[in-house]
Amino acid sequence: MAFSALVDADWLDTEAFMSPAQAAARQHQPQPPLAALRDCLDTYLARFGQPHTPVHRARAEVLAACRSAAVHPPGLFSLTVPTGGGKTLSSLAFALDHAVRHGLERVIYVLPFTSIIEQNAAVFREVFALLGRDVVVEHHSNLLVAQQRNAFPFGDRNRRPPLDPLNALLSYLYTLLRFDAAGALAAHGLDPAVGFLHRDRPGRESLALDLQEEFRAPYADRLALSLVNRQQIRLDHFRTLETGAILLTDDGRKEVLVAWQKRKQDEIEHPFLGEKISIGLLLHAQALLLARHLRGDLDAYPPFEWR
């Protein structure tokens, strides 16, 4: 986080020197105070009413404990709550109460996985909907478009629906990756719907989303960049709906599927197994290793590390 702050400060200083007009415009974009965000959160939480089930009562206790801890001086705090315990809103309540009480200017969330960042950011935008989208700044990108930059700008991740071509391409690739992950897990006797990192929901393949995280950047993101930079995917491979959503055309999906299947045929050496394996079988290898760990054959699950 300190390194990120240093890099951001360097960019802002550079902007002030190279583009003073743009820097001045940035400084004149006031944001609502954190107290306003806290009021918005209180209004959102009031919609739930009084807790009426054991799960709701447990969540209410977690929320009350977080808010009571906000009075303490700034320092290191920890929150250990199982999945479904209401960590997202409770931690947000603590952060806003604590920041307002101690005169802090902003709240920064640092999260480990892209999908979890997206999940939390979506909740925050729903909470602060009355204050506008700009109160939540979401950033998690390793994407660098070298060709067709004007046609494929990438400001942030948006989905359901995607609002620009690059996000539409990423969403399609992530869907393909999730389907492959679910199939690999099922093939090795694991239920794709029972996850560890992603909350279980009806109709959601939480374990497939967990497994997918290991392959987002090296598999899907890298392929997206290759398709754009090699100009295999162009603007004419997308269509815009009346709602503003951007989707791949039939020709665009065909181009992506052909590249997806071709990429699966490439071979690398698996870092744990020490054997040559096609990229298409990597998900199966990881599903097998996870199944062996859960059955007690391996002491720990070895996550895939792309080298």
Q: Provide the succession of SSEs.
A: HHHHHHHHHEEHEEH
CATH homologous superfamily identity of the largest domain: CRISPR-associated endonuclease Cas1, C-terminal domain
Enumerate the spans where pLDDT stays under 50 for 5 or more consecutive residues: none
Q: Which outline best applies?
A: globular
Features:
mainly alpha; Four Helix Bundle (Hemerythrin (Met), subunit A); two-stranded antiparallel sheet
Question: Which helices and strands occur, and which strands form pairs?
Answer:
Blueprint: H1 2-18, H2 20-27, H3 34-46, H4 54-69, H5 87-101, H6 114-127, H7 165-187, H8 206-213, H9 216-229, E1 238-240, E2 246-248, H10 250-264, E3 267-269, E4 276-278, H11 282-294
Antiparallel strand pairs: 1-2, 3-4
Helix pairs in contact: 1-2, 3-5, 4-5, 7-8, 7-9, 7-11
Question: What does the model show?
Answer:
With 307 residues, this protein is mainly alpha-helical. It has 2 domains: 31-135, no CATH class; 165-294, CRISPR-associated endonuclease Cas1, C-terminal domain (Four Helix Bundle (Hemerythrin (Met), subunit A)). The chain is built from 11 helices and 4 strands. It has helices at 2-18, 20-27, 34-46, 54-69, 87-101, 114-127, 165-187, 206-213, 216-229, 250-264, 282-294, and strands at 238-240, 246-248, 267-269, 276-278. The strands form 2 sheets. A two-stranded antiparallel sheet has the order 1-2. Strands 3-4 form a two-stranded antiparallel ribbon. Helix 4 runs parallel beside helix 5 (87-101) and helix 7 packs across helix 11. The radius of gyration is 22 Å and the shape is globular.
